[in-house]
Fold:
Amino acid sequence: MAASSEVHAPLLIGVDWGGSNLRAYLLDAGGTVLERRAAPLAATGIPDGRHMQISEDIIGDWRARNLPVLVCGMAGARNGWHEVPYAQGPANAATLAAGLVEPVAGIWVVPGVRCARDDGGADVMRGEETQVIGALALDPSRVDACVICPGTHSKWVDVHGGAIACFRSYVTGELFAIISEAWRRVMGAHTAQPEADAGAFRRGVRIGASTPLANALFTLRAGYATRTLPQADMHEYLSGLLIGSEIAACRDATDGPGPSLLIGAPELAARYVEAFATLDLPTPRALDAQACVARGLLQVWNARPSP
Structure:
């Protein structure tokens, strides 16, 4: 009995504090999530000094056990808890561990990752880097892979030699939210609608993948104006347009060895799997985002430089 309790003794408090939610994990040395908590609180836009109080409200009893806290996500952004400089890609767990910042005693924040673009600009991520590190730990055979992190700002990550080499970002989820809100105003927020046609999403995927996005998006308005696209189908169709366009832009990334890894919430991941099937592309291997980020936080913590 004693040995079992030691195996499952808490080692680390991992926190994923993003642009809309805070998720906390009590982890043991093997990466098992012993407890989890969540709150719909964004890390950005919080008045100075409130981040610490919020964290205490949610994980204060865990911290009372004198456990270290490791935070990833938008908590490290310039308008988050404490700005942490981006690590330059290629980046692995050791790279991220070397860039940890300790704004409060016993609490460390993980850096995001920055990569250079061919046009001289830069692309950035905060939070997804920890998910990718966790995914690689969960599937250690994949030292080279395409890793897809769908969401508000979807990331397509090229992993080489077990490190994040470069990536591309797409504002797919953000566009969906903005356009959906605009259409709610057009159609009336309280208009009762029948259930959407199951094929609306797939039609959107095919058109989004084969048509320039600005033109594809107008088919939504044209369909409404001509009554050829039922109102009940519009959100499914719009989702398909945006996801289809994203996948088409990154089709070259799916040609690597083995299936792509897809890190996301189950419902969103299922949409991407369906879109891949609609476009006759190899099915990606779906991994749960929370499992990946929890394991990634542990990997970063274990990779800290020796004192």
